[in-house]
Amino acid sequence: MEDFDDIEQQVRNIIVEQLQVDVRNVTKDSTIDGLGGDSLKALQILSLFETHFNISISDEDAIKINSFKSAVEVVRKHLKK
Fold first, then answer.
1. Domain count, the chain
2. Quick check: 1 pLDDT over 80?
């Protein structure tokens, strides 16, 4: 079983809630598409990241979010600002 740090757990919980998938199905290599998400769900997830973490994600970074790993990277980047 994979270990998730605090930020990864929060990102994973948002993805699980929005895509209505079992938390065990979200791994560090998961993609939004692979979990059954589409572009609308991706936008909803993005909005929840911004609200939950109190960050503003640029359009340039928003288009990079297509997987769990990329979502965590973008969130971490914006938390450092």
1. 1
2. no
